[in-house]
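Quick check before the chapter quiz. The format below is the same one you will see on the exam, so make sure you can read both the input and the output lines.
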Amino acid sequence: MSNPEHPAPVSNLADDDMQAIPRALVRAARRAREIAAQTGTPLIISRAGQVVEYPVTDRDPEQADSDGSR
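Here is the expected output.
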């Protein structure tokens, strides 16, 4: 998750549960990409205020950036 275009989310709240939320969201997004690649379905995301279908391949560029395997 060291991609400069997508910095790691940070919670400024003191509660321990709230501190864990950004990491949980990153894990959920990664899992959604995995499932979309396995099932051949696009992700539905918001880009620049527009809802778009985002096709996912087995080696999605965003996933490669986040796991450092590029």
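If your answer matched, good. The chain has one domain: 16-67.
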